[in-house]
């Protein structure tokens, strides 16, 4: 007798997004399967100054956090504005997607997304300058993320030109 | 046979056939969508949408009757906030097709039986309410509804059943009356009067020991925290006095009266309430949370009184909306704000009151705490001109009443407020709360502010907190969370142990083996350097494990952790968590440490209780995990035995399966032992905790009595409510050990203040 009504089963915050990791070793189907079972979240738009303690405090609100891996600039080895949060259970991670995604940490709206699982090397930014790709090309000024985007910085003060 | 003939006759045979098989599914989805969406925002009126939908469904009855029945039964159970929309729809269908109406009623009765069998009591309430509103739609005859109610109320005459069982049947009947009271009284007033008088008798006999444990505030003013059945009874009494005139509920069926009253009604089959089963889980009693009344909404519509039936209906509907949409915060906020009839009530106040009511509900909120924070933020986004002000007003009121607020609820308020502030740049008029600076720091108000600032700091950083509060609040600002390691301050090189520390640190840096480090440490018994490193990278835990094989060792390491990290409570919690998970310390050791004399000065701080509850939860999860493994192994064995029975008598197969069975049986035996050992550890943990509470509280009570001093110090209030909190937060687990607790600890010799907590817990009949 008990019927599940599709119209009432909406849980859109938990759905996987369009993003697929280009460096993932495996096909799209395998990646999606992992994303749908994952206990690990990617967290983006962090300030460079946000600490592991702050991330732990916020994400503990949806359940026990197993570990946090702060994303690092590949060259400088300093925080570059993202991290991974791994939970012990899928249910706790889902609560984070529903209630922590899109709220503020360090005054910034952070974004969470499913991750297929942390592997050594994934804690580094993939931008040419060492940070995240999004910080390579952005044109805005963000003091919590190193100021202007890398490209914009070079355009503003290109090397080898005299200034009068 | 006829289908094949059709496809032969048609032109594009194959494609036509394919279309035929996919169509029914599409139509079923469409039907589901149409039914679920009726009543939502539309360019046409609700009446014309219902009329249209009734026409569509009537036309589809010949082919999709069962699907339609199932969908309508489901919305009755899952969308109670749209009750009257769907009862009207069923009424219209019944008017057009009497048989369908009869089949629907039968399906509902079957569903009601199912939900009761599966302990889904809240959903069962919605089903009965739906049936009762069908009386208003001329689908069900009033006398047969009264008969069902009479059967429900006869449960109150049963002997030797839990009170919560009779409670539920009384609640169901009373909660239907706002919808159908008028109609039932018009047709069967004598029977209804008898019913109400039986209910009154039951309510008078009812034991209410459990109430103090569930109240958010202990004070009666300004709003008494009423027991839920008492409140509902008062509301129904008032409704009766008003001759059952109820003007709040949206009743679309009134517009269709001329059509509906032509319909033939069905009689409900006689419904005997299922008997009491020992494993039945009836809903827990509740206390009605009230924080606003008509004086609080400054302008606009007036808030209905606490004993008005409108208040009941509004609160019911808002709770139902949250229940339906809690996973989808934007939808939930939008649905709450588009509540029908919102122009006649101060909706923002009702929403804020219902949300806080759920957040502060004891034993626990219906949904995870963080959901409410995010929901309130969404509501603020959708109503930026009005809701934040109501929320600020609510926060102010909650602050003013902290002195009598239950400690568990204060914990939740601290967590909500600090998280909320972190989303709004920590803006708050702290000066308004300057009164907290003039009283003893252990009193609820300064304690609350201190804990809020500590949580705010954890979400940001120390300097931020210094910047956001007025200088006068300096005493309440938390300490900067750095480690306190007297050995690490290089300038103090004359401190004993400094040289040793350097030796050990160098050894670790040079990747000395665990044995070498262990030797050095054992000779010197220095732990702090390890802890400093431990905070950042949790390694060398085998070393620690050896050092902490005894209870003394475990207590020592916990003390050292506290010594080094006492300004960084979050780090203490993380380290204790890791040490339990890597089995360096056990749960009982943590409990003993928290209750020890060393930690007495920290006893009323929130982080202590967060650590204790987290420890208990880990213990519970551990037991559950092994129990699950045991169940899985047992299932495997059963399947194996079935396979053997069904596979016949192949000799080789028999030998293999015998081996497998033998292995499984061994595994089950091992797991059984593991479960027993884990349960024993769990029981011991609770015994340790309760024993410690009893010792501390008894000491305090005796000291006060001999000194003729009032027992109600801030410390005592905190301690006794923390004891309550243990019972409430872990009631499911504690239930298993009631016998031991009663025989060993909560005996009649205990001081009555302490025994009362235990008795209140038993009265919840969880």
From TrEMBL, chain A:
GO aspect biological process, one term: mRNA cis splicing, via spliceosome
Listed GO CC annotations: nuclear cap binding complex; nucleus
Cellular location(s): Nucleus
Domain RRM stretches: 39-117
Domain of life: Eukaryota
InterPro entries: NCBP2, NCBP2_RRM, Nucleotide-bd_a/b_plait_sf, RBD_domain_sf, RRM_dom
Pfam families hit by this protein: RRM_1 (PF00076)
Annotated spans, Disordered: 122-164
Family matches, as Gene3D superfamilies: 3.30.70.330
Compositionally biased spans, kind Basic and acidic residues: 133-143
Composition bias, Polar residues: 152-164
Assembly, per entry: Component of the nuclear cap-binding complex (CBC), a heterodimer composed of ncbp1/cbp80 and ncbp2/cbp20 that interacts with m7GpppG-capped RNA.
Its job: Component of the cap-binding complex (CBC), which binds co-transcriptionally to the 5' cap of pre-mRNAs and is involved in various processes such as pre-mRNA splicing, translation regulation, nonsense-mediated mRNA decay, RNA-mediated gene silencing (RNAi) by microRNAs (miRNAs) and mRNA export. The CBC complex is involved in mRNA export from the nucleus, leading to the recruitment of the mRNA export machinery to the 5' end of mRNA and to mRNA export in a 5' to 3' direction through the nuclear pore.
Similarity section: Belongs to the RRM NCBP2 family.
Record protein name field: Nuclear cap-binding protein subunit 2
Gene name, Swiss-Prot/TrEMBL: NCBP2
From TrEMBL, chain B:
Main location group: cytoplasm
Acidic residues biased stretches: 648-666
GO molecular function: mRNA binding; RNA cap binding
GO cellular component, one term: nucleus
A family per Pfam: MIF4G
Keywords: Coiled coil, Cytoplasm, mRNA capping, mRNA processing, mRNA splicing, mRNA transport, Nonsense-mediated mRNA decay, Nucleus, RNA-mediated gene silencing, Translation regulation, Transport
Annotated region (Disordered), positions in chain: 1-24, 635-673
InterPro entries (alphabetical): ARM-type_fold, CBP80, MIF4G-like_typ-1, MIF4G-like_typ-2, MIF4G-like_typ-3
Matching SUPFAM superfamilies: ARM repeat
Domain annotation MIF4G: ranges: 28-240
Compartment(s): Cytoplasm; Nucleus
Entry annotated with the keyword DNA-binding: no
GO process annotations (BP): 7-methylguanosine mRNA capping; mRNA export from nucleus; nuclear-transcribed mRNA catabolic process, nonsense-mediated decay; regulation of mRNA processing; regulation of translation; regulatory ncRNA-mediated gene silencing; RNA splicing
Family, as annotated: Belongs to the NCBP1 family.
Protein name (record): Nuclear cap binding protein subunit 1
Gene from which the chain derives: NCBP1
């Amino acid at each position: 007798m008990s019927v599940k009504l599709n119209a009432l089963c909406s849980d859109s915050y938990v759905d996987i997004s369009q993003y697929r990791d280009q460096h993932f070793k495996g096909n799209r189907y395998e990646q999606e399967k992992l994303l749908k079972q994952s206990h690990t979240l990617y967290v983006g738009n962090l300030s460079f100054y946000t600490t592991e303690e702050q991330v732990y405090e916020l994400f503990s609100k949806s359940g026990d956090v197993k570990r946090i891996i702060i994303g690092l600039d590949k060259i400088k080895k300093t925080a570059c504005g993202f991290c991974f949060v791994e939970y012990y259970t899928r249910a706790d991670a889902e609560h984070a997607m529903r209630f922590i995604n899109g709220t503020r940490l360090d005054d910034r709206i952070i974004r969470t997304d499913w991750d297929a699982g942390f592997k050594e090397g994934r804690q580094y930014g993939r931008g040419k300058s060492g940070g995240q790709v999004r910080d390579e090309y952005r044109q805005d000024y963000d003091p919590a993320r190193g100021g202007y985007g890398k490209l914009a910085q070079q355009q503003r003060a290109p090397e080898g030109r005299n200034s009068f | 046979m006829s289908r094949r003939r059709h496809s032969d006759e048609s032109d594009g045979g194959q494609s036509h056939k394919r279309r035929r098989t996919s169509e029914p599914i599409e139509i079923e989805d469409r039907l589901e969508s149409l039914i679920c969406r009726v009543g939502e925002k539309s360019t046409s009126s609700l009446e014309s949408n219902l009329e249209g939908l009734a026409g569509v469904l009537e036309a589809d009855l010949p082919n999709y009757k069962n699907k339609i029945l199932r969908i309508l039964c489901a919305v009755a159970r899952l969308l109670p906030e749209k009750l009257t929309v769907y009862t009207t729809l069923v009424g219209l269908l019944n008017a057009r097709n009497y048989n369908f109406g009869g089949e629907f009623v039968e399906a509902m009765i079957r569903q009601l039986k199912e939900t009761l069998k599966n302990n889904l009591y809240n959903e069962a309430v919605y089903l009965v309410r739906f049936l009762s509103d069908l009386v208003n739609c001329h689908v069900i005859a009033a006398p047969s509804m009264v008969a069902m109610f009479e059967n429900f109320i006869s449960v109150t005459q049963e002997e030797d059943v839990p009170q919560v069982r009779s409670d539920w049947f009384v609640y169901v009947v009373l909660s239907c009356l706002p919808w159908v009271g008028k109609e039932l009284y018009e047709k069967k007033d004598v029977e209804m009067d008898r019913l109400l008088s039986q209910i009154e008798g039951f309510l008078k006999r009812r034991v209410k020991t459990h109430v103090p444990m569930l109240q958010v505030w202990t004070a009666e003013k300004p709003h008494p925290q009423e027991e839920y059945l008492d409140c509902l009874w008062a509301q129904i009494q008032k409704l009766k006095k008003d001759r059952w005139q109820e003007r709040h509920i949206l009743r679309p069926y009134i517009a269709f009266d001329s059509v509906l009253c032509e319909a033939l009604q069905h009689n409900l089959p006689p419904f005997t309430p299922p008997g009491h089963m020992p494993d039945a889980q009836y809903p827990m009693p509740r206390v009605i949370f009230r924080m606003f009344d008509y004086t609080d909404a400054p302008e606009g519509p007036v808030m209905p009184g606490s004993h008005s039936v409108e208040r009941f209906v509004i609160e019911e509907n808002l709770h139902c909306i949250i229940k339906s949409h809690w996973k989808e915060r934007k939808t939930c906020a939008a649905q709450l704000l588009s509540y029908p009839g919102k122009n006649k009530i101060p909706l923002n106040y009702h929403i804020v009151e219902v949300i806080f009511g759920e957040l502060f509900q004891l034993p626990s909120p219906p949904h995870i705490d963080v959901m409410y924070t995010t929901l309130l933020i969404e509501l603020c986004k959708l109503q930026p001109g009005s809701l934040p002000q109501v929320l600020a007003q609510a926060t102010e009121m909650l602050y003013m009443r902290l002195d009598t607020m239950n400690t568990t609820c204060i914990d939740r308020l601290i967590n909500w407020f600090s998280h909320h502030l972190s989303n709004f740049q920590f803006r708050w008029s702290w000066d308004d709360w300057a009164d907290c600076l003039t009283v003893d720091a252990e009193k609820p108000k300064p304690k609350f502010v201190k804990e809020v600032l500590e949580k705010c700091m954890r979400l940001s950083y120390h300097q931020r907190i210094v910047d956001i509060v007025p200088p006068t609040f300096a005493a309440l600002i938390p300490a900067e969370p750095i480690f306190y390691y007297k050995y690490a301050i290089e300038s103090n090189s004359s401190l004993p142990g400094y040289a040793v520390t350097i030796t050990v640190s160098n050894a670790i840096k040079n990747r000395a083996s665990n044995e070498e480090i262990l030797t050095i440490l054992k000779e010197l018994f220095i732990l702090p350097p390890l802890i400093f490193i431990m905070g950042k990278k949790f390694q060398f835990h085998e070393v620690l494990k050896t050092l902490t094989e005894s209870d003394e060792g475990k207590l020592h390491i916990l003390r050292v952790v506290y010594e080094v990290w006492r300004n960084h409570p979050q780090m203490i919690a993380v380290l204790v968590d890791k040490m339990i998970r890597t089995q360096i310390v056990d749960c009982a050791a943590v409990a003993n440490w928290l209750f020890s004399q060393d930690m007495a000065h920290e006893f009323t701080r929130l982080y202590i209780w967060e650590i204790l509850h987290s420890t208990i939860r880990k213990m519970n999860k551990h037991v559950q995990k092994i129990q699950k493994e045991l169940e899985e192994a047992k299932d495997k064995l059963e399947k194996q035995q079935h396979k053997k029975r069904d596979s016949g008598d192949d000799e080789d197969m028999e030998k293999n399966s015998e081996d497998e069975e033998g292995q499984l049986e061994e595994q089950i035996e091992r797991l059984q032992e593991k479960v027993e050992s884990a349960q024993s550890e769990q029981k011991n943990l609770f015994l340790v905790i309760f024993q410690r509470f009893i010792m501390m509280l008894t000491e305090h009570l005796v000291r006060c009595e001999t000194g003729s001093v009032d027992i109600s110090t801030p410390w005592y209030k905190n301690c006794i409510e923390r004891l309550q909190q243990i019972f409430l937060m872990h009631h499911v687990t504690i239930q298993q050990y009631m016998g031991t607790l009663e025989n060993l600890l909560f005996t009649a010799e205990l001081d009555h203040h302490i025994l009362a907590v235990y008795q209140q817990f038993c009265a919840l009949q969880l």
